[in-house]
Design a protein that fits this description.
The protein is an alpha/beta fold. The protein folds into two domains: about 100 residues, Periplasmic binding protein-like II (D-Maltodextrin-Binding Protein, domain 2, 3-Layer(aba) Sandwich), CATH 3.40.190.10; about 100 residues, Periplasmic binding protein-like II (D-Maltodextrin-Binding Protein, domain 2, 3-Layer(aba) Sandwich). It has seven helices and eleven strands. The strands form two sheets. Strands 1, 2, 3, 4, 6, 7, 8, 9 and 11 form a nine-stranded mixed beta sheet that branches. Strand 1, helix 2 and strand 2 form a beta-alpha-beta unit. Helix 2 packs across helix 6. The longest helix is centred in the N-terminal third of the chain and has 28 residues. The relative contact order is 0.17.
């Protein structure tokens, strides 16, 4: 028996249909198992310049078919990317009250001391901020309220902040520290990418923290893929914060803070 020309034509069309169905099933499986898709992120510089690319690289290593878009914006401009729909989520240092966005506390990052290599204080497990009196200080900018946090924690130590250099980004501050131009208080997440021979990082007492705020669109659910990336970011932040948490025994050995 031999198929007619009509039967051959029907077979070819049926084969195309079955191939198409199989392709759709494969794509659906990939999406369901979070192996395929797109994620767009916008974040403030201290997070997106070093830490976030390192975390995202590990996230993408097992997901070669996932496409990632990452945008760096100042904390106060992140909401714009969210409103225009170019990002699935944003991470900022300041909350927003825009009605089209949900803003909730995502994480807290310790401010730690950045010291030049070989600095005498680098031998200590915890830096008493009172020991920074007289040290040339490099201050972060006002855009993300870093200067407010810095002034507040120095105030708790009974000191006034009188910076010799003001910069906008923590990474820039670390560059000045590496060049021996002073010391700085920077978020712990900025440590990613700096070698020990360039900058020495130590926890401080008293401690200061910077809040991170997660932006999502109010009426649009977050994709499972974006949710998984957020879980990975939070997990890596937890590990980093634990690393730079002041040792209780070292803190107990310091003189008591001044009473106000």
């Amino acid at each position: 028996m031999h198929p007619t020309a009509e039967a051959q034509r029907l077979f070819l069309e049926t084969e195309k249909l079955l191939t198409g169905v199989a392709r759709v099933e494969n794509i659906a499986r990939s999406i369901r198992e979070l192996e395929r898709g797109e994620v767009a992120v916008t974040a403030y510089p201290a997070l997106s310049l070093r830490f976030l690319p390192k975390v995202a690289a590990g996230f993408l290593a097992s997901r070669p078919d996932v496409r990632l878009s990452m945008e760096t914006r100042s904390s106060r401009a992140i909401y714009e990317s969210m409103l225009t729909g170019t990002a699935d989520f944003g991470i900022s240092l300041v909350p927003t009250s825009h009605p089209g966005l949900d803003s909730k506390l995502f994480h807290e990052s310790h401010m730690i001391c950045a010291l030049p290599p070989g600095h005498p204080l680098a031998e200590r497990p915890v830096i008493d901020l009172r020991d920074l009196a007289g040290e040339p200080f490099i201050s972060l900018g006002r855009d993300d309220l870093s200067d407010v946090v810095t002034a507040e924690v120095f105030g708790r130590a009974g000191l006034d902040v009188d910076p010799v250099i003001r910069v906008q980004m923590a990474d820039t501050a670390c560059s000045f520290v590496a060049g021996g131009r002073g010391v700085a208080l920077v978020p712990s997440l900025v440590t990613a990418g700096w070698r020990a021979e360039e900058v020495t990082f130590r926890p401080t007492w008293p401690t200061a923290k910077k809040e991170m705020w997660l932006y999502t669109r109010t009426y649009e659910p977050l994709s499972m893929l974006a949710g998984k990336l957020l879980e990975r970011i939070r997990s890596e932040l937890d590990l980093l914060e634990e690393r730079y948490r002041p040792d209780p025994e070292a803190v107990a050995a310091l003189p008591p803070l001044p009473a106000f």
